[in-house]
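Sequence in, structure out. Go.
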Amino acid sequence: MELSFTDFIITKEASKAWSISTRAITYNVVAGRILGAIKKGNLWLIPVATPKPEDKRKNNRRERTQEVD
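Output:
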């Protein structure tokens, strides 16, 4: 399988596109939340068409209070 680097972006480019830190990108890649990412040396290559991963930390306060009631 031949890799074309035009099909991938690095973590810095993904952080600008998704408005999250490069550390958050790296964390999500290592956790397996960004599918198709490839590590080449010290860079993570992320497929261009990959959607932004969902933030698992966010909890909607309204949803939590409705569950309690």
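Check: The longest strand covers residues 43-47. The beta strands are 8-10, 38-40, 43-47.
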